[in-house]
């Protein structure tokens, strides 16, 4: 079984002082022994977060990366730069990137490859919209997003992936997927991974994201194919984030 992972995605929120508070609190916290914790902070805070988290078990992640390695791409940030600032994880294909920044499956695959090229572990995000769920297309959509990446990678590259299932209708809405809905999709993802290699299915952490909070985390994390969480809003409040971490132990 993969080690549980609780990753906080601050999105375009937070501050330098919040970074410092989290560093202190995570350093002091008695976290479950079998748990990985990560914080995905905005680019400008990566350097400060690397220092603030150095006394804790939390690892550092970024929220996206450029599809280019370097060059004249004003405003972009490369994977190599993220590595230099201390990130070891990076989100790719978050639904906000897919919908607000037009990142399609091909763009997601390129970013996964860029991340792997420089030794960043990608957290590949998958999820269906409400209209797709209502049309009973959830599984086809999510597995299609997954196939677009798996089929573009070599077997050893697939082993580096973390996968996050985030139904778009549950993100930031307070409406979480039921444990049964989330488990069903996670099981489908696991089966698709197993079609490539049983060892890949067994070792890949599958995170759930979408309105996971302190009061619903335990029930979601108790599902057999849910190995952790990708937490948005609740990752900005240290007590809530720590409570979710405790639920994963
Ligand atoms: O990356 C995190 C997800 O988008 C979930 O966000 P949320 O917990 O605010 O619903």
Question: Could you provide a short overview of the structure?
Answer:
The chain has a single domain (5-235), classed as TIM Barrel (Alpha-Beta Barrel). The protein is α/β, with parallel strands linked by helices and 249 residues long. The protein has helices spanning 16-28, 46-52, 79-84, 95-100, 105-117, 130-134, 138-150, 155-158, 179-196, 198-203, 217-221, 238-247, and strands at residues 5-9, 36-40, 59-62, 89-92, 121-126, 162-165, 206-209, 228-231.
Structure description:
This protein has 249 residues and is an alpha/beta fold. The protein has one domain (5-235): Aldolase class I (TIM Barrel). Helices cover 43% and strands 14% of the residues. It is built from 12 helices and 8 strands. Strands 1-2-3-4-5-6-7-8 form an 8-stranded parallel barrel, surrounded by 5 helices. Helix 1 (16-28) packs parallel to helix 2 (46-52) and helix 7 (138-150) packs parallel to helix 9 (179-196). The longest helix has 18 residues, at 179-196. The mean pLDDT is 97. Residues 9, 94, 166, 171-172, 209-212, 230-234 line the site of glyceraldehyde-3-phosphate (G3H). Pathway: Carbohydrate degradation; glycolysis; D-glyceraldehyde 3-phosphate from glycerone phosphate: step 1/1; Carbohydrate metabolism; erythritol degradation; Carbohydrate biosynthesis; gluconeogenesis.
């Amino acid at each position: 079984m993969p080690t549980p992972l609780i990753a906080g995605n601050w999105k375009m929120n937070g501050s330098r002082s919040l970074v410092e508070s989290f560093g202190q609190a995570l350093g002091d916290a008695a976290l479950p022994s079998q748990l990985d914790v990560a914080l995905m902070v905005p680019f400008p805070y990566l350097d400060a977060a690397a220092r603030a988290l150095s006394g804790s078990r939390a690892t550092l992640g970024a929220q996206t990366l450029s599809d280019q390695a370097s060059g004249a791409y004003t405003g972009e940030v490369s994977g190599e730069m993220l590595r230099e600032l201390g990130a070891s994880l990076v989100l790719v294909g978050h639904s906000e990137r897919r919908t607000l920044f037009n990142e399609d499956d091909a763009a997601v695959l390129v970013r996964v490859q860029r991340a792997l090229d420089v030794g960043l572990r990608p957290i590949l995000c998958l999820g269906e919209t409400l209209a797709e769920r209502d049309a009973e297309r959830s599984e086809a959509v999510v597995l299609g997003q997954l196939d677009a990446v798996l089929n573009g990678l070599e077997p050893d590259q697939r082993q580096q992936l973390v996968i996050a299932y985030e139904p778009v209708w549950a993100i930031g809405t307070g409406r979480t997927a039921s444990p049964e809905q989330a488990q069903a999709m996670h099981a489908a993802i696991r089966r698709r991974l197993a079609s490539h290699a049983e060892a890949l299915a067994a070792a890949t952490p599958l995170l759930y994201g979408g309105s996971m909070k302190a009061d619903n985390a335990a029930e979601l994390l108790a599902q057999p194919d849910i190995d952790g969480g990708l937490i948005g809003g609740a990752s900005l409040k240290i007590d809530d984030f720590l409570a979710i971490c405790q639920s994963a132990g």
